[in-house]
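[job 0412] stage=fold_complex status=start
inputs:
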Amino acid sequence: MNASRPVPRWAKWLRRGAVGILTAGPTGLAVAFMADMLWRTGLDGWKLALLGCFAVLAALAAFGCTQAVIGFIIRRTGGDRRRLDTSPTDAPLPARATAVVMPVFNEDAERVFAGVRVIYESLRATGRLDGFDFFVLSDSTDPDRWIEEEAAWVGLTRDLGAAGRFFYRRRRLNTNRKAGNLADFCRRWGRNYRYLLVLDADSLMTGDTIVRLVQTMERQPRAGIIQTVPRLVNGTTRFARLQQFASRLYGPVFQAGLNFWHLDESNYWGHNALLRLEPFIEYCALPELPGREPFGGRILSHDFVEAALMVRAGWGVWLAPDLAGSFEESPANLIDFAKRDRRWLQGNLQHSWLLAARGLHSTSRLHFASGILGYLASPLWLVFLLLSTLLVFRQQATGLTLLAKDSLVAGSALGLRGEAALLFVGTMALLFLPKLLALLDLVGRPVEVAGFGGSRCLLASAAAETVWSALSAPILMLFHSKFLLWLALGRSVAWVTQRRGGDGAPEWREAILTHSWQTGVGLLWGAAALTLDPVFFVWLAPVLAGLVLSIPLSLATAQAPAPERPAGLRLFTTPTELSPPPVLAALATYRKSQAQRPPAPPEFAADRGLLQAALDPYVNAVHVSLLREKETAAPAEDRDRFAALRERLITAGPGALTPRDKLALLLDANSMIRLHRDLWSRPTAQLAEWWRLAIRQYNLLAPAPSTALHR
Amino acid sequence: MNTAPLAPPPTDPAWNEAYQRVESYLRAHRIAHPLALNRLTAAIVGRAWAAAPGQPQSDPVALALREADTVITDWFARVLEQSGPHSRRLGVRGRLALALADVPGRWPASFLATDAPAPELTMQMRQAILYTSPLPGPMKMTLRPLALGLFAGVMDWLWLILQHSAGLRVVRRVLVVAAVVGLGLLAFFR
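[job 0412] stage=fold_complex status=done
writing structure:
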């Protein structure tokens, strides 16, 4: 279809009505069964609470299942005729109209710039590079990361011949975090560009996909945001590979289902998306929420809100699941995944303020509600299970045999056990039907099945993933519930950098400290359940197993599987893993060559940024030049302070300075020029041992230390 | 007639240290060829040695590094055609130009060589500019009002009351804990 025509209002509501009915049907049935069961055994306040929890959980499961069913039907019947048309054209792109921006915050600079290099080269291969400028927008507060970024930017700009096309900017104050970082870009250079392609530090996109995104935006004059669906890639640990397998296998049916009812009122996920800058700047400035963090203050999960504001202003927000060349990475282990969830939970809960905001589209409210319930489901499930335990306890405490009344449904021949069994089967169907449909969707697609390592590998992986998801769900349930409790107690969330990639395996100590309370809860709860009623214990066993085994599960999934086995014979193989697209292969090559370089000596692991900025003639020149561009000279009264700090740094080493003092020196161009000169021209006896060792690295007998400029 | 030797005595520890430091400094500039490195270092230390009698208070390391700096800055001034007194900034500018033009990688024998540098090297170094950002294109990002509704207004009011009183903050926490404990007790004893 020609997607430049607006989607008729009736079509949107017809589709949303269908989703609503399909969700309400199974939910109503499940709740009716549950209510009948509870009524037959004597309804009281506790059981009503249990029914309330069950109703919400059933509705969420039914909502997910409905989307999978619709998605499956769409995919098996030739696709959605109202989906966004992202087909490529020969139309030229407007010159330098798109800014490709990557906001970073204390990320691995080598990975960040390797990603930019790959995207840049891929775009150059399309012959459409003229349409793009590149920016790395740093909010890094870690001096080591900051210096690495500067040197890596200069090195990469030089290697790519991208001077004047690839820019780097670091904010001294990271006000309002990532959203503030992007807003700062908009305020400085917004008028120069028509579109903004937002990437994450671990994002990767093919040049072809980027070109198609811009072409689609050009054809869609009312589109404000086009969000691609990034595929998870580059996982090396079992956990990351599980995640990427699940998202690759189950993702397509869910995405098709989501797109069915979202249409042009979809959502923005914060990265791997193209924004139309003018309306974004005009309408998407983020309001401050009432109160303070953790619930109020500055909006953390800005993407949903920006999408809602864009839709409110009458611009379209589209999902583009057809564009395959969009990638991101997954956290490497369960602990990092939970850490990320903690930030997202807080961000999503903040959206509660906006649920009733005037002027927002009802679909946007639904996106907010889905995001909130996605995390509230965990404590609700916990309460449901606790109430179930309580009801068993209360029943056992009476010492009486349970006698069921007749069903509310006249003439029902089902006994209590029959009703329970039916409800159980129905609930399992809601939970597992999407997985089954995703597998059925691959029937008749042999190339895709081969991409998963063949049918046997695919089925074995799907079975193992199902077991893993059942075991990990209770662990996440306790994590989310704890996070929520902490938030209720007024504790804020630290903005931490998660570990990604194969080196992200947590240590035993970290895993034990993080999961021991979950193991304890599992053991105590299991003992209580077994004492109360062995049948109840069996019913609860899958939940308890996940909790009791949380430490070994977390550790085992954080390890990389044996690499000697061919990819096609390994569980959780994905098509991108088996035959990686050129951008992924190129990134892997760069990362491999980076990994082969000798690491920095351990004594310089801390303060290696300061070391390079002060000693290395080239890094020092780059750093000072970047400061000179932006920073003014220190006031006269600060000069004595800086002189004293420099002297202490030279004679006592970096350990004698506070992080704040080191940062102050790094921000003062004059100090950095003097430090470079003084360190090299002081006799050894006047230097701290740390500097003596550092200078010795440049001696002929030792290999020259590497920097981002010179490897 | 000048009777001073051309180089410091080879057993003088302070001048050996100076030699080693100059050598390391030049190596930090990625001068890769050992012979060139050796000759340059010896020449710089020789110049420092010659200047030493006039500056008896100066340490050999400081003297030698000052000479190294002068040699390097002179070379930058020649290649970058910077006339007049050399500022400290010329050193920074020159090193940046070396890095941007990748002189150590592309012309490893040219840096500090007495021969005239290759025209392309000269051109590349003169054109080496750090483009940190494009031309400004400022736009105003104005916040549009967003009425959060009555519920949010009431919650905001409650939140402000709770936040502005330390006592009430404690009460809030106690209430949360009491609610959890109370529900538990109620469940088991009622």
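[job 0412] summary: The two ends of chain A are 52 Å apart (CA to CA).
[job 0412] exit 0
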